[in-house]
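Exam prep: given the inputs below (a chain plus XIL), describe the expected output before reading on.
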Amino acid sequence: MAFVAPAPAEAASTLGASAAEKGRYFGTAVAAHKLSDSQYVSILNREFNSVTAENEMKWDATEPSQGRFSYTNADRIVNHARANGMSIRGHALLWHAQQPGWAQNMSGSALRSAAINHVTQVASYYRGRIHSWDVVNEAFADGGSGGRRDSNLQRTGNDWIEAAFRAARAADPNAKLCYNDYNTDGVNAKSTGIYTMVRDFKARGVPIDCVGFQSHLTNSVPGDYQTNLQRFADLGVDVQITELDIAGTNQAAVYDTVTRACLAVSRCTGITVWGIRDSDSWRTGANPLLFDNNGNKKPAYTAVLNALNAGGTNPGGP
Ligand code: XIL
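Solution:
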């Protein structure tokens, strides 16, 4: 019988499969009400192996009145993900935005207790089912201060973030606990403020496992994007690109650069885009995603897939 040479390893043909070959995940934000859209679901199931609830796990959705928890829409996403073998990013336990009205009207120790109870209840409800939780979202200020953003949560005391992380760890010991923010894509005052907090948490034993970089970009990405991811990884946390979308010119090239940067950092464990088709994007009219309004792959999709197929492996896995 003639010798048949083994076929060369084939480049993967979907985002999720290619990322998985590299020890990573490739995810998308999902809206529960779109799970009845067959085109949306077919792209979701074909291309992605991680999901983030776009709004359904936020405080206003999960605790609409104090102490009454509501998981119906979040569960639709969780159940879809689990039925299809996708991991789940939990987003977000505490944030200054999208709070229920009752929490917006609270302050001081009453708000602190309510916030920590929220973390405990939601993280406990989903215990064992969440790959990574955004425990705290967007707590640092924009601009040059490098300090915290003013909010009702911040006014309960500077230790609100570490209190939230400790509560989340107690509630779900196996979930990775992330701090997540935007405008942190290069080395700048805001990202350095977060870097300093993470370094302090690691030094004091406050539980933190990962930092999320939302990466809502327009036209370009800072030249030190990879350097910035790496400096966080060097603190001993995973880094994740959590809400990627890219508006403006050079879209495919910028997607390529961002994807390659993640793959060059061994602790960059996954990338999530913030929606599937341009028509699904929160940035109305910006067309910042990988699929057009008809569900067709854009040049940006091909750039990402090729970059994933070319990239390095994460030895730690996703
Ligand atoms: C956005 C959602 O995409 C919108 O549907 C919603 O109206 C507002 O929030 N940073 C975050 C995300 O952490 O939760 C935000 O999502 C986008 C900015």
